[in-house]
Amino acid sequence: MSIDILIPLLAATVQSGTPILYATLGEIFTERSGILNLGVEGIMITGALVGFLVAKVTGNPWIAFCAAGLAGASAASLHGFVCLVFQGNQVVSGLALTILGVGFANYLGTSYVGQSAPGFSRLPIPFLSEVPFFGAIFFNQDVLVYITFVIPVVMWLFLYNTRFGLNVRAAGEYPAAATAAGLNVVACRWLGVLAGGFLMGLGGAYLSLAYTHLWTNNLTAGRGWIAVALVIFAFWRPGRAVFGAYLFGGIMAMQLRLQASGTPIPSSLLLMLPYVLTITVLVFSSWRRGKTDEPAALGTNIAPAD
Question: Percent of the chain beyond pLDDT 70?
């Protein structure tokens, strides 16, 4: 493959992997607190719709981006109420949230299908974008991509080097011991749910404000489920999530380019590629289950009285 073809493909890989990376980091943060949220798909598409509508009304993509994050946190709060207040089943609640979010977005967004809204365009970073090979791939992107270069580092520093981050991890690892030490486990889990939902909403907003600049139903196209699988592949580590998101982004970018080139491979088979990789990733991760950083109390409910 020539360099003239490889660089655009890798640049598209970074762009395609960015919404998945936002969502994966959000799910990692949520699961680190001990809450399993399978509603990522519903939260992402809710954020995508809210971001699109706010951008269309205000004309300001930054306001829209922040609004999408808040919408994601609001949607995640429904999961928080079910699991932290009413002690409901986390798996069932997450699945219901996905159904609710997708239905909500498709119902309200149908009249906007095909319409565009102000969004984010490429913003080359001076000097860095001119670096041979890597500059065109990583530093000739939009500003929302650049933000994802920082978030994994900030998240790692927070979770492993701050008292509040250690509290969040304790809530997901040993909630009984954390409670005995005077830690408010429920509050820590609320932080994980809301902060994670905020990042998932941002991932959805990237799709409508930067990736497409328009609205279409089912815009997330299963990326939320891919993010859930990537958390396992990443072993709950923010750094590995970057690699996983770009891996899936590369498959998606290649699939689109093969379709555009008129390949004889049936389009239905090409559309299967990301999900075949998802299954492969889950199988690979299951072999290393004992070597991961999976929170010991993931999916375990803790009563507020505790």
Answer: 94
